[in-house]
Design goal:
The protein has 497 residues and is an alpha+beta fold. The chain is 47% helix and 10% strand. It contains 17 helices and 14 strands. It has a five-stranded mixed sheet, with helices on both faces. The chain has a three-stranded antiparallel sheet with strand order 12-13-14, with no helix packed on it. Strands 1-2 form a two-stranded antiparallel ribbon. The radius of gyration is 27 Å and the shape is globular.
Length: 497
Amino acid sequence: MAARIVRPSRDDVFMGSAAVVRAFADIDAALAVLAAEVAGAGLEPFSVADPLRGLADGCLDILAGVAGCEARLAGLKVQAVAAYAESDRAVTPAAVSAQAQEMAVVAEVAGVLTIGARAAGVLLNESQVLANVLPLTLAGLQDGSLSWAHAKVVVEETATLDRAGAAALEAHFLGPDAPNPARGCAGPGELVPHRFRHKARTWRERHHPESLEKRHARSVAERRVEHRPDLDGMAWFHAYLPADTASAMWNRTTALARGLQGPDESRTLPQLCADIFADAVLSNGQNRRNGQNGQHGQTVQDSGGTVADVRTPHAEVLVTVPVFSLMGLTDEPAMLDGHGPIPASMARKLVADGAGSFYRVLVDPRDGAPLEIGRTSYRVTKAIRRWLRMRDGKCPFPGCSNNSLDNEADHLLAWHHGGTTGISNLGQPCRKHHRLRHTSGWTPTPATKHEPPGWISPSGRRYKSEHQDWEPPHWPRGCLPGERSLFEEAILKRLSA
């Protein structure tokens, strides 16, 4: 006979203050009111003139309110778990070992929340970190400006940092008086969590107390290929590789897949990428023709069992390199488009080897903004496209991570309506959001030279776009005002080498 899980009644759960019972009764009553509003059974309609439109807008208002309530409840849960653990530790007899006491706390939390012991242990650790190490993040939960998913990002990205490093990362994104506040968004809570994680991880890599060069050297020794069985007769086959290698493989595979798309191709882009990858590994190069190493063409097995020949396109990857780092005067990380920080030595190698798939961009030593883009053509369209890639970094639609190299230039104000082909009148949405713009009520807002367009939804709500978070590069010793002679000596020495 299968066991039946019986959730404890309110009388079993609330064993303490009557004020707690009343507070949760009020919450239950408020939830019932909101549920009735969503069902269209509220005391009065959202709009008398247009009830359906009013209900749609009202549901969005309720969703926004629910998001804030969920965050505040998560903050309350964190406080309760951390306070319970601290209180229980204080009243536990000294004869009980610390390990036994923690196991008892985890078991109690797991029981009251009806979750597994492992999940309860993770929650206990996260709660103690937030309560004792990350006060700004906990405050963001409590005021509803950060979701639980955002808070977990901060906890996880600071896990290997000391207290000073954790405090610096938190202050950069959440501190009201940070000396070098985060740019690219009004606040982390306005970014979807995975985009916030990208920014937090980028900052962590740049400012980790141990240099990226040393950490990368250790990690290179751990490169490997992994195989993991999955459901329905499927499995995962993936590799842990240096970032430049992995990015080049990904961009090349995507470019090949796009070259195969057409009216007679039934496979989706992800299916094509998977088939191309499998063919490349299993064929041992035997399916390639028209040139060595796929420089001119590559053959790929199609769904019907025949071999389709596809011309290998040029797959560009942007590498943003601080000027001093490229010169070897500092080891400041470079930025690999679609990945994040990479060691300076990797960037210098890519530039020195003249890798055809990598396109270098130098940045201004004063503020980290793009300094020059080494154009190989005088055609304005190419220069503008590359500037768009530098400005936006990815599709500007909120929450989208589609890499900039896959996206399409789009006039914000249409050409036939008087729009110009200038950087401030262009966006580069991915194909999906380009179609959304032209087939629905979503419309972009104006852009600037340094910031991508935002978006206005069909309901009239405005959503900001994430943009690049440029940081001023580190000035090497001898380059600050009054030390220019040392700087000039370094340049002359390098030029004469």
